[in-house]
């Protein structure tokens, strides 16, 4: 493989990772972080544009498609790894036949919850407010709910406010 194609492929992949991070962080991060990632991303993009002139159109298209398939997935995975854990409350009103099983699995997995009665158009049911402080616990809760049939739930982020 030609050295020029290797260089172009590498900078295109890095550009895709930076561009994806830019898109996500522009929405999620502070103004300072958004400005910094935008400056880096657009600055790096100028390298890609300059390098495009040195390779064929077919190579540009193929490398760009492949870089996007790999780079978008990788950058989203990487940002998830650095994502700060948040505190979530998951409200669940399971079918009566699933309530005890869900409750038991939550206790077995040391997951915090409150249980209470609710009145619905279908009569009295039991509800659960399940609390998750980490991504690991959230995945465990989702697994428990998924393994108990079609359980519908509502998720709310708990923020510190007074």
Structural class: alpha+beta
Number of E-state strands: 4
Largest sheet: 4 strands, antiparallel
Computed over alpha carbons, the radius of gyration is: 23 Å
Order of helices and strands: HHHEHEEHE
What strand line-up does the widest sheet have? Answer: 2-3-1-4
Overall shape: elongated
User: What separation lies between the terminal Cα atoms?
Assistant: 61 Å
Q: Give the amount of beta strand, in percent.
A: 15-25%
- As a percent range, the share of helical residues equals 55-70%
Mean pLDDT: 88
- Weakly predicted, low-confidence segments: none
- Summed up, the helix count is 5
What does this structure look like?
A hairpin with a 2-residue loop joins strand 2 and strand 3 (123-132). Helix 1 runs antiparallel to helix 2 and helix 1 packs across helix 3. This protein has helices spanning 3-28, 31-52, 57-82, 96-108, 135-146; strands spanning 88-92, 113-120, 123-132, 153-157. Helices cover 61% and strands 17% of the residues. It starts with a helix and ends in a 5-residue tail after the last strand. A 4-stranded antiparallel sheet has the order 2-3-1-4. 15% of the residues are buried. The protein is α+β, with helices and mostly antiparallel strands and 162 residues long.
């Amino acid at each position: 493989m030609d050295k020029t194609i290797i260089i172009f492929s590498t900078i295109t992949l890095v550009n895709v990772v930076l561009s994806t991070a830019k898109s996500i962080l522009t929405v999620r991060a502070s103004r300072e972080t958004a400005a910094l990632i935008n400056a880096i991303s657009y600055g790096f993009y100028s390298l890609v544009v300059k390098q495009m002139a040195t390779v064929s159109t077919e190579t540009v298209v193929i490398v760009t498609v492949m870089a996007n398939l790999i780079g978008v997935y990788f950058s989203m995975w990487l940002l998830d790894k650095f994502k700060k854990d948040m505190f979530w409350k998951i409200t669940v009103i399971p079918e009566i036949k699933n309530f005890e099983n869900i409750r038991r699995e939550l206790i077995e997995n040391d997951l915090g919850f409150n249980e209470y009665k609710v009145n619905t158009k279908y009569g009295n049911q039991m509800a659960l407010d399940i609390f998750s402080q980490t991504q690991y616990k959230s995945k465990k809760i989702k697994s428990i709910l998924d393994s108990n049939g079609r359980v519908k739930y509502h998720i709310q982020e708990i923020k510190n406010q007074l």
